[in-house]
Specification:
mainly alpha, three-stranded antiparallel β-sheet, 5% strand, elongated
């Protein structure tokens, strides 16, 4: 009989569900302070459903998106745990998808684009100067 979606998972069940070895989960605990499974007597780990969701996001970012450990740590620091969970649920476009849908950059020698950017920057500077004086 399969466990319900709200049941706690042992490390072997979590590892199977995430398709990573158990030692990887233990390693991630040492690198990511936000991964804290509940521990019972004897140090046996139990992962809550919320832990699994975070781990799924970490796994996707590290294994599928090519993030480094420091990159995931920075993402957590800047955008929080919800961003990691969203990555695991596929709610955030992957780096490849974002690059594919991003507007194409103009050639470096495109004078019109440079003049447009310069006007935008000058307008922003003017607004900032006005706010600082006021």
């Amino acid at each position: 009989m399969a466990k319900g979606p709200d049941a706690f998972r042992t490390i072997s069940e979590a590892a199977d569900e995430l398709n990573v070895p158990q030692h990887v989960l233990r390693f991630w605990e040492t690198r990511f302070s936000f991964i804290k499974p509940m521990k019972r007597a004897g140090g046996r780990r139990f992962y809550r459903p919320s832990d699994i969701n975070v781990l799924r996001g970490v796994r996707r970012l590290l294994h599928d998106e090519g993030y480094t450990i420091k990159g995931v740590q920075k993402l957590h620091r800047e955008q929080g745990i919800k961003r990691l969970v969203a990555a695991g649920q596929g709610e955030i476009p992957s780096v490849a998808q974002a690059a594919a849908t991003a507007p194409k950059a103009r050639p470096a020698g495109d004078k019109t684009a440079l003049l447009e950017a310069l006007r935008d920057l000058e307008a922003a500077k003017s607004r900032l100067d006005g706010l600082l004086k006021g």
